[in-house]
Amino acid sequence: MNNRKLFTLLLTGGILVSANFIACSKGGDDNPQPVDPCAGKAIVITATPTSSNGCGAPSGSIAVSATGSTGFTYKLNAAGSYQAAGLFNGLAAGAYTVFVKDADGCEKSQAVTVGATGASFTINAATTPTNGCGTTTGGITITATGSTGFTYKLNAGGTYQASNSFTGLAEGSYTVFVKDGSGCENSQAVTVVAGAPGAKFSAVRTLLNARCISCHSGTAPAAGKDWSNNCVVVANKALINNRAVIIGDMPQGGPTLSAAEKAIITDWINAGGQLTN
Prior knowledge:
Elements: E1 2-11, E2 15-24, E3 44-50, E4 52-53, E5 60-67, E6 73-76, E7 87-91, E8 94-101, E9 107-114, E10 116-117, E11 122-128, E12 138-145, E13 151-154, E14 165-169, E15 172-179, E16 185-192, H1 199-211, H2 230-235, H3 237-247, H4 259-271
Parallel strand pairs: 4-10
Antiparallel strand pairs: 1-2, 3-5, 5-7, 6-8, 8-9, 11-12, 12-14, 13-15, 15-16
Helix pairs in contact: 1-4, 3-4
C-alpha cells in the first residue's frame, strides 16, 4: 500500500508549488507485520521413557530435553502445566505427549510411550476332593511359574502366606490368589468337589443292599436309618460295625453275616470309614 504525502512550498515571488511524494514500505505495506520469533527455529525434543513395573504402583518416567533454542520449560500432556524440570515420574504404562516451550514462547510436542516391565506369571491350582457327606477334608495346592517370591492366599478376604497349600476345605467354589515379589497379582477360580465312592465303601453298600435294604429303606426305614443314602451309611458306620460285626445279630431275622461279609465292613472301617475309602 502506498503512503502519499503532500508538500506545499512557497517560492520567491509568491509562487506556490505543491509536490506529491509517494513513499512505499519495503514489503509494499505501510503497516509492516511484526517479526515471528519462532520462524526458522528448529527445536528438537529428546524424550527418554523408563518402563513402569507391570504391577503395583506406577513407576515409569519420561526424561525430556531439547535443543535448538534456550530457556526451555516442559509439560506432560496438553492439560499439564509447564515446569522447569524435564523429568516426569510416577507414570503408569501408556501413551503420553510431552511439550517443550522456549523463552520466546515457541512450542513443540512429541508423543512418547511408557512401557511395562515384569513378565506375567501363570498359576495352576490342583484340588483334593473332600470325603463327601459334608466333611471339610478338601484341599487346594497352587503352583506358580514365570516369576519369583510368590505368596498365596485363599479368597479375596484371605491373608497372603508363604505356603502354597490350603487344607480343611468343604465342597464349594474358591478363588486362589498369587502375588510375586514385585507385587504382581494373579488369581484363578477353583472348585472343590466331593470325592467319588471308594472301592471299600462301594463293597459295603453292595452288602447292605443285598442283606439289609429291605428294612433300611423307604419312607419309614428301620430305626430311621436309610442305607440307600450314602451319607447315612457313613454317619452310622460305628453302629453298623457294632451290630453287624461285633455283636453279630444283624440282619434281624438272619441269617447273620458270614466272616467274609463281616470282613468287608471291617476293611472299610479300618481304611477310615469314609465315602471315598
